[in-house]
Protein 1
Amino acid sequence: MEDEVYLFHQFLYPMNLFINKIINLLESEISLPPDKIGALLEQPPDNKMGDYALPCFSIAKQLRKNPQDIAAELSQKLVPNDTIVQITATGPYLNFHVAKPLLFRTVLEEIASTGASYGNSLIGKDKTIIIDYSSPNIAKHLAVHHLRSAVIGNAIYNLFKALGYRCIGINHLGDWGTQFGQLIVALKRWGSNFAITSKRNSFEEDSTKQETLTVNKLNELYVTFHKEAKTDKNLEEEAREWFKKLEDGDNEAKETWQHFKEISMLEFDRVYKRLGITFDSYAGESFYNEMLDDTVKRIKDSGLTEISEDALVVNLEKFNMPPCILRKRDEASLYATRDICAAEYRKREYHFDKMVYVVGSEQRLHFRQFFKVLEQMGYEWVDTCAHADFGLVKFKQGKMSTREGKVILLEDLLEESYKIAREIIEEKNPDLENREEVAENVGIGAIIFSELCTKRVKDVLFDWDVILNFDGETGPYVQYTHARMCSILRKYGESVTTSVDYNLLKEDDEIVLIKQLEGFPFAISRAADNYEPSILSNHLLDLCSTFNRYYQHHRILTDDNELRKARILLIDAIRQVIQNGLSILGLKSPERM
RNA sequence: GCGCCCGUAGCUCAGAAGGAUAGAGCGACGGUUUCCUAAACCGUAGGCCAGAGGUUCGAAUCCUCUCGGGCGCACCA
């Protein structure tokens, strides 16, 4: 038990040359294996106290001695060396001071030589991860509540890419289900003026007499359906019949559905492109139609199913969950059926080592049920599947609902943010050359970053003023900091070199900065492990904040030649790290703004 | 009713598998621009970490209960 805890810890503070030296020193004095010593080490809250600390409480317990005394004794016994230059006892803590020039050199040379790949690792070499994200329903607009899954999923994709994983991003389109029956009914009743043709042969049609169907119009039809369905009870039944026809391969149903899908994808791609989000597969729910029977048969054969209220279900009572429904009364499938089927398919097709679903937390129960069914089917790999859930987007008026037609469209939000960025540039930097491009990068960046800077689980209240704020802890702040550094480097003009006097870097803020740079790879791996991009965005914010303070109080382009060279190297490293981080989060790093 | 999640400054949130004094941003108030981009920086104010017990050398962090909020609970996804 204890051992496991220690092992876990080890991961927290990755080994580096300084920790190794500290362990070497301690080994002879403490009767603990090296990895356990390493696990005990932590970082003091204030840099002035030291760089690494050994809390002596647990040792005190073993030796039945006072932790203060142990720290004091050890500080006497241990002999500093070229790497660990000072060892002091502060109360029950033994604090180690690292040779700062060596620290600067190690980190700055590493960043200079690895560049855009600083922070990457090979942990995921030869491993595959599937990330299921965005996954909107077709025939509906992308609205602001669709943003989270797409943006968080994209960041998780990039995080694992940085760890060396082979990543498969899947947009599991909601292109199947009863709502298409509803839409077909709606279209037949109230939309006879629309042309239903596949895009590819639409030019053959007499389009002058018929209106073109758009997602907008589909949305209106959907709203109408639900409004009418409240009074006309036949509608729901009719919709169910049409969906059944669709599942049975009825031509008319299928062609109509295909058309819905095409016009939807046209819109989605426009938004994804603007957000810089891509997928490796668009295999949505309909993709699994033909495989559904096999999946259901397998579940049946494992003896897991029963008929309850005329539906085919897996009873999960003993797991304290409601049953997982596989087939409705009318034999039609449900999303759980399709999710199980998709998981099996993905395992067969991609042999993934991990699979993560970036889906809202309102579906928690669904994932618990569906994972439980996989487990009951004997798939041990269910343990490698995770639901990276996220909180709801709420509005002052309450939850947003497509059914009632109350939505804020994603495209409108992006456009608004672009416009604001554009205005700010006009005001602050009117001579900027590629204004449109920068405004796009900053405007979109503001929106992406705002989704990524708090932990997933938090519900977010949508507020135009908050999401379109460009001051403080925001994407534009990070981008601005980056642009500032680019500006310094431009002004410097010469090429950056690692042949500098590292002894000259000794300001407090420089030390804080170098540690933040050193911690960047760790921030990436923690963010990936927890499927939590906010760990990375917060790391970047901290780094920017330290830099801006430093920038305010110290001149980088000083008259002192050697100092200037050293500081420029530091600045270039920060710039690189911010760029790497922003790129993982899905933001551009403009050089001027 | 049952289950899951959340509760840290006026607001929005950080808080490294329990550690040294609780940190930002926004908002408020007051400062900084002949000086590398003021989308910045500095200062002031603001806290019983929802509450109560427990675990231990030590708790915002782990356990139990209470209160408050969100979400979910059979043929939608």
Protein 2
Amino acid sequence: MAGPPRKTKVPDSARAITADLVAVLVAVTDGEPKIMTIANAAALPSGPFEFKHRSLQSGLRAWVEAQTGHPLGYVEQLYTFADRGRTGDGPAPHSVSISYLGLTREDQLAERAEAHWSGWYDYFPWEDHRAGPPALLTKLLMPRLRAWAKSAPSPTLQRERWQRVAITFGFEDREWNEELILQRYELLFEAALIPEAVRESGNAATLVPGRAMTADHRRILATGIARLRAKIKYRPVVFELMPAEFTLLQLQRSVEALAGRLVHKQNFRRLMEQQQLVEETGAIATETVGRPAKLFRFRHAVLAERAVAGTKLPLSRT
Amino acid sequence: MAGPPRKTKVPDSARAITADLVAVLVAVTDGEPKIMTIANAAALPSGPFEFKHRSLQSGLRAWVEAQTGHPLGYVEQLYTFADRGRTGDGPAPHSVSISYLGLTREDQLAERAEAHWSGWYDYFPWEDHRAGPPALLTKLLMPRLRAWAKSAPSPTLQRERWQRVAITFGFEDREWNEELILQRYELLFEAALIPEAVRESGNAATLVPGRAMTADHRRILATGIARLRAKIKYRPVVFELMPAEFTLLQLQRSVEALAGRLVHKQNFRRLMEQQQLVEETGAIATETVGRPAKLFRFRHAVLAERAVAGTKLPLSRT
DNA sequence: TTAGCTTATGCTCAGGATAAGTATAAGCCA
DNA sequence: TGGCTTATACTTATCCTGAGCATAAGCTAA
């Protein structure tokens, strides 16, 4: 950025770089959030940047639809990663990765594809609070992060580190904030508790559970989850992950799957109805335990009626 | 994105592109929002991508600090633009623009620089609602957008167009939503009411007021403003734009400058105080009209204490 | 047949947040 | 001193939110 404004000519050879696209493709099946992975679940789908398509988005859409046989409902750009040394070691990789978030349905993956759907909590087991705070949070992460904080050179720095940890992880009676997933990942990375952070230096004994990924793909995934967890609260995007018809409980389970925490059932229904986000189809769910539920569909009309909000996560304490 | 996963080798020559950085640098002076411009206020500062620095952010910081002599408080990536033909005409420009939002203070710009500070409402005169909805909104934009809607091929499409217009511009008793600035710009662009949209095809008579910019810089600016208008509501970033000490009214005026609308004074103070975002310095403002106000400073401590919110824009109807 | 389990759905209630307004204080200047 | 301006304290009505109670409507096993 130390250069002159764009108009000035710079030899292209001096500026040539390469670019990749990386996609975080999300689906929710049976109340479990999934992401599309390749390379034996160790990488996000990615490919070289191509100018064939009119825009990055349309290129991504075409590619995903070919892979999954299902239209890609919602697409949004996430972040462009270009930091030196992000792939681990060595000199500056003259390359950027442009990442996207896409929402779709699992359904059938083309068989030929080497792609799979993996549960996203495999990669972030400490992020699933639907059954209360996971045991590994206090049993494993807390003591190791405390040790890391203690290892700071000065008492002041030690206190600062621990305060950062307590805020981002909700320790010491602080609230758990599901949107801080990226900050939590980066903190664990900084504390060298993540395989990706200690690639060659070994020391695997003190690492933290959770499946690793190649390069910085797990960071990109965390970025995508964070964006989605924030987005469902102010934009009605959950519906992109639902079948055409669904019960309110199924909808609620999807929201909970993404947020990683439970919501208050009655209040959730109240919100959906008073915002007129859904309408009854007239049909009733079959093959269920308990009283059969009415089926609903998303009211696409709201999008035209007003600038519409999402799901405000009516939280549940229990 | 139609290619194989990253591990497969692709000759670099086939993928080589170039990248630019574009910066939306914001300051607020005397209650007016400004952006840094070059090229006679017709372009945003931009330059070739360089890997000299550890990250894009640090490169941007260094560059801005050299230009303004003031540290760049807050930096955030905005968007990466890579759509074919975005610069207007011709074939695919094998180039991407990575844009950033930065918050700073105007102060002294290094004299040698060709950079200036321009009021951002020069580029979007319809976005300033601090003195009520601007006249040109109903006098000019409304009829032209209505004509554009009417020009759609079918009655259904005409209705859809007009509904879109009404929602994004707050016509017909709908609420004005200051965050929709990018959607408004894109609508005007689509309706060919923006000089950038009709580069060669002329027809300047029916255009809409507001200073144009080169390439897609005005779109990038709109993206930055939209992001900032959203951000001030949930993150305490306004303070990056303030001097070390300020009165609550000055703070309020800055928020209003960014949002383009007025807030309720008493409620604004209540929010600031009950969130403990500011603390009294003990000093009193001098050289003012009316009763002198206490001076406040930002409580940096809140950032460490908790995941902190911003300013919820206690709106004012008048 | 019915008790007991499950999920669906309707309704109430208290506390807190919000929008708006009233009232008073404290400077200055004509 | 009256009138103008801005600062600051308080009040009020309304809406939103979190939480819980109660009842409905299916099923299965005793």
